[in-house]
């Protein structure tokens, strides 16, 4: 049972406030975004950097993965700041 369905089956006196609901929704959206981001980075960086999958990473592969992840994090930060600044 997820957090939304558990709320609908509770008594009216124990329902969460709109502010609590929005806070919970923000947390769930942030978690979903983080999971999607990690999956995207994992897939893109793996495809770009790992040419011959094996039992361990070579030095070049390790460096490539590190740079790739750093670029994705930096790009996401730039996009997020631009979006948040444009909404003000």
Written description of the protein model:
It is found in: Mitochondrion inner membrane; Mitochondrion intermembrane space. Keywords: Chaperone, Disulfide bond, Membrane, Metal-binding, Mitochondrion, Mitochondrion inner membrane, Protein transport, Translocation, Transport, Zinc. One of its GO terms (cellular component) is mitochondrial intermembrane space chaperone complex. Residues 24-83 form the Tim10-like domain. Helices cover 75% and strands 0% of the residues. It contains three helices and no strands. The radius of gyration is 20 Å and the shape is elongated. The two termini are 37 Å apart.
| Total beta strands | 0
The percentage helix is over 70%
**Biggest pleated-sheet summary:** none
Pick out the low-confidence regions.
Answer: 5-13
List the topology elements.
Layout: H1 3-8, H2 18-49, H3 59-86
Helix pairs in contact: 2-3
GO molecular function: metal ion binding
Domain Tim10-like: 24-83
Subcellular location: Mitochondrion inner membrane; Mitochondrion intermembrane space
């Amino acid at each position: 049972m997820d957090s939304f369905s558990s709320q609908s089956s509770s008594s009216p006196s124990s329902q969460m406030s709109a502010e609590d609901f929005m806070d919970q929704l923000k947390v769930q959206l942030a978690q979903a975004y983080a999971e999607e981001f990690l999956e995207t980075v994992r897939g893109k960086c793996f495809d770009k950097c790992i040419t011959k999958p094996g039992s361990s990473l070579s030095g070049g592969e390790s460096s490539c993965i590190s740079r790739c992840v750093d670029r994705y994090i930096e790009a996401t930060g730039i996009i997020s700041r631009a979006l948040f600044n444009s909404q003000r």
